[in-house]
Write a structure and sequence with these properties.
single chain; Methyltransf_11; 7-stranded mixed beta sheet; alpha/beta
Length: 228
C-alpha cells in the first residue's frame, strides 16, 4: 500500500471519508470520555490515521501534547503532518515506524476500521500493548468482520480497489488482545442517532434499511483493550 497515492481509488473519495466518519468519531470520543471522565490524556496513537482528521479533532479537544499516527500512504502522511503542525509533538510514521514509539509512551491508542487490513492480529496487539502505559487502553472500531452479514458483499469491493483484506471474527480479535496481556471488552460503537445514507452515492451499498441499521447499531463494534 506504500505506493498508493490515496486509500480509496481517488483523492476526492479520501476527502469525503471524514464527513462520512463524523458520527463514528463522535461516538468513539463519547465512549472514551464516559470510560475515563476527567482523565488527563496527554498523548495518543492513532493507527491508520489517514489525513489526520481524527487526531486533529481530539488533539484540540483534549489539549494533547504528544500525538503519534501510523499511516502507510505517503501522501496521506504528509497531509496529516501538515494538519497537526500546531501540536507540540506530532509524529506521523509509516507502518515500519512502530519501533520509533517508546515503550509505555501513550495512555490511549485508537484504530478505526483498520483491523481487516492487518494479517497478523497477534503482532498488532503486541505492538499496541508495548506502547500503551499501564492503566491505558486501546479503542479499536471495526464493522468489516465475519459476523457482519454485509462483509461478504463489501469485501469484493475493497479487493477491487487494490486492497489486501483479511477475514477476522470478533472473537479472533478478543483472543489476540488477551494473548498480548490486555484485558478485552467489546460493545456496539453506536447505540442511537441518525444514519445518513444516500443510495445513489453509496460506496458500500446495502440491500435494505434493516441491514443499514443493523450495521450501524449492532455490527459496527468497539473493542476496548486495557493494559493492567
Amino acid at each position: 500500500m506504500e505506493t498508493r497515492q490515496s486509500f480509496f481509488p481517488t483523492a476526492a473519495m479520501d476527502a469525503d471519508m471524514e464527513e462520512a466518519n463524523g458520527p463514528f468519531w463522535d461516538d468513539l470520543i463519547a465512549r472514551i470520555e464516559e470510560d475515563a471522565p476527567g482523565a488527563a490524556l496527554d498523548g495518543l496513537l492513532d493507527v491508520g490515521c489517514h489525513r489526520g482528521g481524527f487526531l486533529e479533532r481530539v488533539a484540540a479537544r483534549w489539549a494533547l501534547r504528544t500525538v503519534y499516527g501510523i499511516e502507510p500512504v505517503a501522501e496521506l502522511r504528509a497531509a496529516a503532518a501538515a494538519r497537526l503542525s500546531g501540536v507540540a509533538q506530532a509524529v506521523i510514521l509509516d507502518v515500519d515506524g512502530w519501533e520509533r514509539i517508546p515503550d509505555d509512551a501513550v495512555p490511549l491508542v485508537t484504530a478505526q476500521e483498520v483491523l481487516y487490513l492487518v494479517g497478523d492480529l497477534d503482532g498488532m496487539m503486541r505492538r499496541i500493548a508495548r506502547v500503551l502505559r499501564p492503566g491505558g487502553a486501546a479503542y479499536l472500531t471495526l464493522g468489516s468482520h465475519t459476523e457482519n452479514p454485509l462483509w461478504p458483499h463489501w469485501r469484493p469491493i475493497l479487493v477491487s480497489m487494490g486492497l489486501v483484506v483479511f477475514d477476522h471474527s470478533p472473537l479472533d480479535i478478543l483472543r489476540a488482545g488477551e494473548a498480548a496481556g490486555l484485558n478485552p471488552a467489546v460493545r456496539p460503537l453506536r447505540t442511537d442517532g441518525w444514519v445518513t445514507y444516500r443510495p445513489s452515492a453509496a460506496r458500500f451499498p446495502v440491500p435494505s434499511v434493516a441491514a443499514l441499521i443493523d450495521h450501524h447499531f449492532r455490527h459496527k463494534l468497539l473493542f476496548c483493550f486495557e493494559k493492567p
